[in-house]
Each structure stands twice: as structure tokens, then as C-alpha cells.
Design a protein that fits this description.
InterPro entries: ASADH-related, Asp_semi-ald_DH_pep-lack, NAD(P)-bd_dom_sf, Semialdehyde_DH_NAD-bd, Semialdhyde_DH_dimer_dom
Protein name: Aspartate-semialdehyde dehydrogenase
Family: Belongs to the aspartate-semialdehyde dehydrogenase family.
CATH superfamily of the largest domain: Dihydrodipicolinate Reductase, domain 2
Oligomer: single chain
Number of domains: 2
Keywords: NADP, Oxidoreductase
CATH topology of the largest domain: Dihydrodipicolinate Reductase, domain 2
EC number: 1.2.1.11
Structural class: alpha/beta
Distance between the termini: 15 Å
Shape: globular
Order of helices and strands: EHEHHEHEHEHHEHEHEEEEHHEHEEH
Number of strands: 14
Helix content: 25-40%
Strand content: 15-25%
Length: 361
Amino acid sequence: MSEKLKVGILGGTGMVGQRFISLLENHPWFEVVTIAASPRSAGKRYEDAVGDRWKMTTPMPEAVKDIVVMNVNEVEKVAASVDFVFSAVDMTKDEIRAIEEDYAKTETPVVSNNSAHRWTPDVPMIIPEINSDHTDIIAKQKERLGTKRGFIAVKPNCSIQSYTPALKAWEEFEPYEVVATTYQAISGAGKTFKDWPEMVGNIIPYIGGEEEKSEKEPLRVLGKYEDGEIKLAKEPVITCQCIRVPVLNGHTAAVFVKFRRKPTKEQLIEKLESFRGAPQELGLPSAPKQFIQYMTEDNRPQVALDVDYERGMGVSIGRLREDTVYDWKFVGLSHNTVRGAAGGAVLCAELLKAKGFIEAK
């Protein structure tokens, strides 16, 4: 009998669900035993339910092909088969909020890739290297839900991963104003070039709802857990533009920063390269050994060369230079469906297990 925790994937046939399944293949702590999706997929073998819609570059793991997909709406039945679930369901925000709470109330922890609960006050929104202490709010959430072990935790938007870690690393220099433009891959919309041929050779200067998320979510991640609540950071003030570009995987950000305490370039680079958080200290299985790498070449980071840094779990920063209007500017790159989506959620679940929040039922 496996000693691994039994995992369910809610929304397992979609692109993020597929990424969860790929990342969890041979995971040392977790084993996918249940896949749930919409009623139209329920009752089919996973391989048949996905059909020709497998979007990963690696083959579908053999271990999941014969799993019979369950109906995600049969909450009690799905929850009975697992220790916890990852959520990547494709529903309205109200439906997601309701179904994730329904799962939590069955005493099943939910680690969500969805945005629906990111602003629920007692749900932690976690980048594990930055705000692992926000898990302390879970006790209050359990009181509200009336649960002993069931709760919800979420990861933030994929677009903020390429610059928020740098802002945290530079915290002591007091960044107070940020302008960021993100150049976002099509997989962030759950698409490939086969699905979205009009993106070939094209740029779309609008991604619905993305700019607000990119400006506001870092303030929650960078906020402090005090007096039983997560208090938003007041600074830096962030303004952002988000642009869809013809790239499959990898969100790039061009960022300008003003600091109250003026750092040198050497100080900024040293803070990036030495930055560590709970995943590194705890030796979590999915943790990058070095979370942030600084690249000295003028033409790096590049999506084609650098998106898979630390198996897609690290962040690459380059082109750090003084600016004529702001103090410093840089370019960041992160893998949007690994660190920014399923991989970030897997790391979050590892953190929650290491801290005792997720255990076998």
C-alpha cells in the first residue's frame, strides 16, 4: 500500500489539470488516484475523456490513463476517495467559490489554481517563498467553515510571478512605485497555437481582468499576517499593462522601480541571488534550489532559453540597469503554467503538508 497522500484533480481534463497530472507523475509525496471533471467526461477512462486534447509536450502518464473520470459535482463521492484535491475547474467564479467550499466542508483540503477565492479574507494566497506565514489564517477559515481539517488555499495569478519575487527580495530598499508591462504566453489562456492560429505572428494588447490582478495581487502576497488577518501592503503602488504575445509558455515582464533607499546594482543582484524562503529551508520536493537567477547577458532572459530554469519553478531576472525616470529597471521571466499555475500549487501543497495542514484522512 502506498504511503503517499491520495490526490484528486478537479477539472483534470483541461490544460491546467493536465499540467497537474504531468507534474505529479512519480511525485515522492503525492499520488493521483482520482480525476474529476464535467458530467460529459464522467464515466470515461481519462485517456478517452481527453482524447486528442492532450496539450502537454510529454506523454500522458500511464498511471492515469485507465482512471475512470468522476463527476466533479458529486462532491461527497469524490472527496471520499482522496486526502486532498487540487482545483482547476472551469466554471463561473460563483460556482467555483461554492464547489471549493463544498469540498472543504467534507474535511478535504483544497489547493486551488483558480482565482475565485483569492480575495476571500481568510483564504491564504501563497507564493511559498514569499508569504508562507499566511497559512496561519487557515485556523480562522476552519472556524468559519466549521471544519477540523478542510480548508482552501490558493496561488496567485501567473502574471505576477516574474516580478513580485524581485520586489520581495528588495524589500529592505523600500520599493514604493512600480510600472510593469507583462508579455504573456497563450497557454495562460489555456490555448496552444493549434487552438488559436490567429495568435501566430500577432500581439493582442488586452487580456480581460489581468491588469487589475497584476496590480493588486502582489499587495496581498507582500502583506503581513497580523492580529488574525492578512493586511495588504500599502506599497509599492503598481501600475501594469498586460499584452498577449505569440509564445506558448513563459510570461515576461518589463519593470521599472523607484526605491526610498537607493541601492547599488551589486546590492540588488546579491539580494536576488541569495533570496531563499520556506521551500528551500524545508527542502520541499518541487522547490527550486535557487529561486531567482540573475543573468548578466544583455539578451537574457529569453523564453526559448530560460523558461525551464529549475524545471520551470525558478524565476529569471536580467537587464538590470539604471533608468532616467525611475531608479532601476529590469526584465523578468517565469513559466506561467509551471511556477505560475500547477507547479506553484503543487509547491503550495508541499508547504501545507510540511506544516501539518494536509495529512492522510
